[in-house]
Amino acid sequence: IKNIAVLTSGGDAPGMNACIRAVVRTGIYNGINMFGVLQGYQGLINNNIIPMDARSVSNIIHLGGTILKTARCLEFKTDEGMEIAYQNLKARDIDGLIVIGGDGTFTGARNFSNKYNIRVMGIPGTIDNDLYGSDFTLGYDTAINTVIEAIDKIRDTADSHDRLFFIEVMGRDSGCIALRSAVASGAEAVLLPERHTSIDELVSQLASGASTKKSSSIVIVSEGHKAGGAYDIAKQVKEQFNHYDTKVTILGHLQRGGSPSSFDRILGSRLGFAAVNEMLQGTSKAMVGLRGNEIKTTGIDEALSRHSFKLENDLLEMTKVLSI
Ligand code: ATP
């Protein structure tokens, strides 16, 4: 293998830049010519492929987002789109592609590699932590830190005014951000897509807090919760329980941004380093991930077909006990 390209695709996540830096520098250290693809698979099709040297990734380890940009690209799902992408890589003799993204990104890489003679490696980059094969995905830790910083501020006003706050956090299918944020911010309750909590149950929990003189309460709602978003839930709760003045905050896209935490910088560096080394040893159609503080590879087919329940059971139990 002589030439490797790297791209970021799907939603951006803090730590992607640290990872790009590690990929580029590990490749160069091993005598590989490195390329960056701009705007994910769209850049492969548009021939937006640039050579990268060690200095192209200077001063980016602390930056959120992705210097390579990202995009959602429907054309790459078509045979014609893939053929154009392949020809653009072939013209530069690029025989390895490293993709940083979520399961859509991995599906694209697998299909591409099934069709053409290109080695691919996937790196899990998404704030949702919803991928099999890695205990933590890139950006997840930073997103939790961002959420708890926001909740700390909301708690000040909640407490001063005797308010009940419903705070909606990201996670359409995965309650990972919600659960960890709940523990780290001392929230009174958390609503997760993976677990059903009835409004009655929630109301009785809040009422018991109020009866033991809690001056305010914070409920974290994962955006994928079956009973609705934070506004719907707040409305349903208010119909039965009117002890506090009720407010809703939707944190939204601020959860994606910001300087990566030390954890995500180190994880991005480790995963980037490992992905290149694996590819140089002949591995393809695999992802690298963190499992029990070791970097392990998982076949992309396995990663895409299997699903793990990622919510930590001890945290689930703890939230109820610690918020009495
Ligand atoms: P996130 O979890 O942040 O949403 P993701 O990688 O799952 O990240 P997607 O938008 O689902 O994000 O996928 C990223 C890109 O991967 C798509 O825009 C598309 O270009 C490509 N892709 C997804 N599915 C396929 C597929 N079946 N075949 C080819 N390419 C695909």
From TrEMBL:
Its EC number is 2.7.1.11. The keyword Transport does not apply. This is ATP-dependent 6-phosphofructokinase. Keywords: Allosteric enzyme, ATP-binding, Cytoplasm, Glycolysis, Kinase, Magnesium, Metal-binding, Nucleotide-binding, Transferase. Its cofactor is Mg(2+). Pfam families: PFK (PF00365). One of its GO terms (cellular component) is 6-phosphofructokinase complex. ADP binds at R21, A22, V23, V24, R25, R155, G186, A187, E188, K214, S215, S216. Belongs to the phosphofructokinase type A (PFKA) family. ATP-dependent PFK group I subfamily. Prokaryotic clade 'B1' sub-subfamily. Pathway: Carbohydrate degradation; glycolysis; D-glyceraldehyde 3-phosphate and glycerone phosphate from D-glucose: step 3/4. One of its GO terms (molecular function) is ATP binding. One of its GO terms (biological process) is fructose 1,6-bisphosphate metabolic process. Homotetramer. The active site is at D128 (proton acceptor). It is found in: Cytoplasm. ATP binds at G11, R72, C73, G102, D103, G104, T105. Gene3D superfamilies: 3.40.50.450, Phosphofructokinase domain. Allosterically activated by ADP and other diphosphonucleosides, and allosterically inhibited by phosphoenolpyruvate. Its main location: cytoplasm. Substrate binds at T126, I127, D128, R163, M170, G171, R172, E223, K247, H253, L254, Q255, R256. It catalyses: beta-D-fructose 6-phosphate + ATP = beta-D-fructose 1,6-bisphosphate + ADP + H(+).
